[in-house]
Amino acid sequence: MKKIFFFAMLMMSVCLSAQMDYEHWFAPMGNNYRSTYNFQSIYLSTSETTPFEVSVYNAGRLIGKVAISKGSPGKFDIPREYIITEEDRDRMSVISKGLHLIGDKKYFANLRFSVLNHAEIVTSKGLAGLGNKFYIGMPEVSLWSPSGTSNHTVSVIATENGTTVTLSGYDPALVFTNDPAGLPTKTVVLNKDESYIFEINNSNVQNFKKGLIGAKIESDKPISVSNGSFSGRTADTGVDIFMDQAVPVEKTGQESIIMNGNGNLNSPSPSVMEKTLIIATEDNTDVFVNNNMTSTADYQLSKAGDFVFIDSVDYFPLSASDNVYGLHVKTSKNAYVYALLAGSSANEKASGGMNLIPALSCFLPSKIDELSAVDENEVQTSYDGLIISNNVKLNIIAQAGADVYVNNSKTGVLGPYAVLGNSDWELYSVLNVKGNITVESKNNKAITAGIAGGSSNIGFGGYFAGFSSIPSISKVGDCAKGQELVVDDIYDKYEWFYSLDNITYVSYPGNTYYITPGTKFGYYKCEVTKLSCLPAKTTKEFKYLKCTAIGTPKNYTIGACNSIPVITPVFTDSTAAAIDITKTFISQQPDGGNAYVDSGGKIHFDAANTTADHVTFKYYFESIGTFPDSEEITVTVNIVQIKLNNTEITECVDYDGQGYYDLKLAFEPINQDATFTKYTYYKDAALSQVIPTGEISAYHSEPDKIVYVVVTNSYGCDNRSTPAQIVLKTFELPEIKTIDVIDGTSVSINAIGGKKPYRYYIRKGIAIQPLPLLQDYSLSDTLPVTDGKGLYTAFVKSADNSYDCNPVTQVFAVIGISNIITPNDDGKNDTIDMSILSYKMNPKFQVFDREGTKVFEGSSANKFIWTGKDNGSALPTSTYWYLLQWQDFEGADLDVMNGWILLKNRNSY
């Protein structure tokens, strides 16, 4: 049913424009103008009245769908990472960026994008943009600061696996970004949907101005190419984006008409921006400008890839008051023609854009239906804020006598204007166009149309038709759903031919614009006839290859440090010819690990310590021959990973600050796998200090340390590169904040931290050992003092670990004083020792005689010990008065004691 539907869809479709197509490609771009304001969108439109969906893919992954129909165009905002990169590592490297669009019917697709102050449009050429040989076009770019901002860039995206792409024809002294090797060619192999960005930037100054203009891109399978400068300075001030999608050499022609943009051409001096670039595709190409009918060319290009810029002074006025000018270029051999344009006459230097110009041909369409939102291009500017709608000029090139309408009206259509040097074509222009546009020749004359737009310092443009006016064969569909060879469906007659050797051709059945070759591989041509554009034309041959067979899938299970057994490709069909090992490649890379082909054509896969559990890759191989047999095989690799859970252990610590940790019990039960064979524990991250086996279950360590664990499995792999971790912790201990001694008869203990409820205990003396038994503790924070004055130790236990951790302790003093002193050196009552006051805050100990004279002041110097003397002199026997005062803790109430002391001195009566 799918195949029948596809045929029906083909027969119902009518090609109204050469760039409407079923498929479109956009190669990625490298941006050297970094910006925080970026927009990038695909604009889609069609002439089909029945809605259909366009699917947008990146690297084979569907990233969006847009439904469109006539009058209801669509827009898809592209995540920037799919189409534009600012990273140097993405230049000169195989990457998975770029877009592939697929629709059930034909449609236009153009990419509109911007950075701060600058914008451009890349118009997709559809299947007409695919080919094998291209010459590169871009502006000449001046050096400027900052270094590395300007560039010349060419990007390609592959449409088939195993595509070899070669860049040549540039100055070998040029230094490419990320690839400084001075080689005359750069070659890369791409698989389907892979892309590559060739770039030089002004960090390297050798011949930078010319850059890659005229360089050649060749491939052995169809590719899509975009070229230009992102960004480029073409004048002494100002910079902009110059970018368009190229067409292959066979889609170029020998005659073109260029119309100007919004630059100011009504001046005797050349426009800074507006000019035309001509690039030869063959040696000895002559270039004739305007009405030069002589045999002497205006310019001679001796080599393929040589080029010339034609200044705007050679443009002829069509309507100078409306700023409409033209240029007629004719070449002796096929050539590329690019128009550089300005988006704003007020600021030409900073509003550049670039268009690839289609060659003139009566095979051009007669209707371009419809171009969507032609004035739109979102760009943030420094002076005018966000701009969405721009000043856009519509330029129309038509066969002489064409009855031209825009949106079914002639209102605002300027022209027709005659062309210098060619009376068969006429020019039209429409100023300040907006919205959706349909351009039509009511009498079926050929037309093409492009836009040139911008505002402020913005410039952009693009042609929307004309690149399939040179007939060619394309392949649509795939081997699974069926493949067709198609040409454009604008012709009146089709005749197909077939050859197995590309020498002798025979007629092939089919008189419509498509055929279904099935398994009949070989060379095909098609002769197309347009009665209004005789004589008939024959396409270039198209090489139709055999479909690739899908081989039996392979499955392997390995460890994360292992490789699969080496695979030697073998055809499933034993009758196939010998394998061409130079054509064997990895057609789909795995998401992890490393798959590669060695010089002998054998397949390897290394897990390379990927973290993926499963990866899939595909490899392709083919036989020797012009039409080789080929096969693709899917390999699934199950990778046994060592997946571990980090953990932590919380234990009590002793008074030496260390605890005992059972590493084995904490780690191994939660990290079990049938493949695990060994656990090794290390003290350090460098894995240089192994913890002995005998210590693993009772590892003595301080808390806040990390133990590292390496696990080995039965595949011989381990996690040494990322060892598991056991964090050693301890419980938060409580802190005795204050101890308030109340009248010397009780204490109130205030603790914080740890885990409540606390348990409390006090004991006279300062010895910690032996520790009190748990049952000796009280849940009350107020405890009685039963052993009189002296030093005590308070013990507080936290509820952590069921009160199993050691208590915190603090010494405190219960103050008392003796009422008698006999300083006779007999060892009894010789002093009043109040050194216990040192355990209090703001202590005071004073002694006064009966008359109130102070005879002693305690201090840290005398340790609050009174010897019964006053400044070393013995005092008489008498009654003295003392004053004691202190605080138990900061902010506590002041404790005061006073009373009498009897001093009895035997030497004094």
Automatic annotation (TrEMBL):
rRNA-binding is among the record's keywords: no
One protein family per Pfam: IgGFc_binding
All copies of domain IgGFc-binding protein N-terminal, residue ranges: 129-444
Signal peptide feature range: 1-18
Cross-referenced InterPro entries: IgGFc-bd_N, T9SS_type_B
The keyword Nucleotide-binding appears for this protein: no
Keywords: Signal
Domain of life: Bacteria
NCBIfam families attached to this UniProt entry: Bac_Flav_CTERM (TIGR04131)
Name by which UniProt lists this protein: Gliding motility-associated C-terminal domain-containing protein
Organism field: Epilithonimonas bovis DSM 19482
